[in-house]
Design goal:
The complex is a heterodimer of chains A (146) and B (435).
Chain A: H1 3-8, H2 11-22, H3 27-37, H4 41-48, E1 62-67, H5 70-74, H6 79-89, E2 102-107, E3 119-121, E4 124-126, H7 131-142
Parallel strand pairs in A: 1-2
Antiparallel strand pairs in A: 1-3, 3-4
Helix pairs in contact in A: 2-3, 3-4
Chain B: H1 6-9, H2 28-33, H3 38-43, H4 48-58, H5 70-76, E1 86-91, H6 100-107, H7 109-123, E2 127-132, H8 137-152, E3 168-173, H9 183-190, E4 214-218, H10 219-231, H11 233-238, E5 247-254, E6 260-265, H12 270-277, E7 287-291, E8 300-301, H13 311-316, E9 325-330, H14 335-349, H15 355-372, H16 380-391, H17 399-424
Parallel strand pairs in B: 1-2, 1-4, 2-3, 5-9
Antiparallel strand pairs in B: 5-6, 7-8, 7-9
Helix pairs in contact in B: 4-5, 4-7, 6-8, 7-10, 14-15, 14-17, 15-16, 15-17, 16-17
The chains are: A alpha+beta (146), B alpha/beta (435).
Chain lengths: 146, 435
Amino acid sequence: MNPNLERQSQLLSALYIAQEEHGWLKPEAIQRVSDSLGMSPGKVLSSASFYSMMKLQPCGTYLIQVCEGLSCYLLGGADSLVDFLCRELDIKPGETTPDGMFTLEVVQCLAACGSAPALRVNDQLYENITPEDVDQLITRMRSGEL
Amino acid sequence: MVTPSPEDEVVFSPVLTCNVHRAGSERIQVYLDHGGYQAVRKALRMEPDEIIDQVKRSGLRGRGGAGFPTGLKWGYMPRESDTPKIIAVNTDEGEPGTFKDREIVEQDPHQVIEGVLITAYAVGASRAYVYIRGEFFLGVKRWIKAIADAYEFGYLGNNIQGSGFDLDMSVHRGAGAYICGEETAMLESLEGKRGMPRRKPPYPTTEGLFGLPTLVQNIETLACIPHIILNGPKWFSSIGTEQSTGPKIFSVSGHVRNPGNYELPLGIPLRAIIEDHAGGVPGGRKIKAVIPGGASTPMLPAEALEVRMSFEDLAAAGSALGTGGVIVMDERVCMVEATRRLSKFFAHESCGRCTPCRIGSQRIYEILDRMVHGQGKPGDIDLLHELVEGIDGHTFCPMGSALVNPVRSALKYFYAEFEYHITHKRCPVPKKTKV
């Protein structure tokens, strides 16, 4: 097997590691990944920009992703949770709070339809969620408990 | 006394999910304590051709959505060649309404590793790549541990269980792209590229990952393999229908009392899944529509509930088994809104490679969005039809058919509801009861 190609297959893993440091892929991070995998920075950026979990812009400490898929919608999630979060955090989906603490995203199916409504905070999935649960989650995030 | 029908006499007990509720089911020792890795020990004493033959005779068909006969696909892998061969495990589960792979990936990784081992031995592959959806963080963590343990226990690496057979395996985390569930897009992603589908042919079994012969299989398909080896192809094909054999995990969501994964024999009536297993619709409400196999399969009206959940029966009913993700919608659902939501998903997930999908999915979403908001125009339904016919069969990959299925089927069964939205500028479902 061609070792160069084998190394390039580590691209997404490398990007995840690079993203951990600042929560998003700074140009320096793209450069470092490109150096270590022997790919041009343009190629690295081109691939990174294809994937929604690769952040090319600053992202909040807590990335909140609310599922708006059909199953979550049917069980009263999606819209009501997004509305609640928009009010509570005073931002729109896709935005980050000025203090850099929260980023709110509306996402498609999280493969948690059997325990809908669902949302994710960073790498943690929360299922069967209500606005009250979200309220508690925000309190815990604000106090640094989460 | 009621005489039981022949079907009732067959007692089915789960096979693929029999471990998942055990404490520590993801650990190798728990798997070994409950008969794990017995199948691979048996397989390593068999001739590779004999294994391929057994899988062919079992009738197993792919569980990722397309339903291609598994043994036939294995037969396409080149024989007697010196080039390295690869197994790529597809766990990029992203089809709305489907959450079966997530359960297997998180709760029973060793069952799949065993399936991959047997498959690799049968087709002569020496390297396996496991592609797991980026959002499945817990699954990725558990797989890293599971693979390390499998190496330590001599089920991966060189000279596996003293057989002289070698297999290396690694986990790769996706990063949020539905299209990477399409097999060639997944291979592109594994190569560090944008996850856009490749032209076929050549098929992956001829030219796959890094240009090498690659067998791509869904994780649930691979989970079936150890059981076929242990219990025989006859046992497997005795479950299900003639053309759809074996057990299948159905993910049930939406308006049912007990949503969740249910492992049942293929061919079970849709009504039985919803009512007998998932507890039926709460509040005595009526079913309005059901999506039988994940978001990309055509929806069915309540009148079609007797359909058997097999590849052939669902095709005859104008839909498809897909991934087996059943989404139940009761009478309070606005079908234009449901279709709009599905269309938004596909518009968002179009990879952008070809025009009919990239532009068409967006136009469909815009039309449905204005209908929902009381701004539908006369002629919009004709426009939807035109778009559906213009996209279907004219895209680079199967995503085109996937994205038009919800729209075409909703228009077929709920035409009046779409029309009402345009003429009355509002939804006919009473606001009080609406979801």
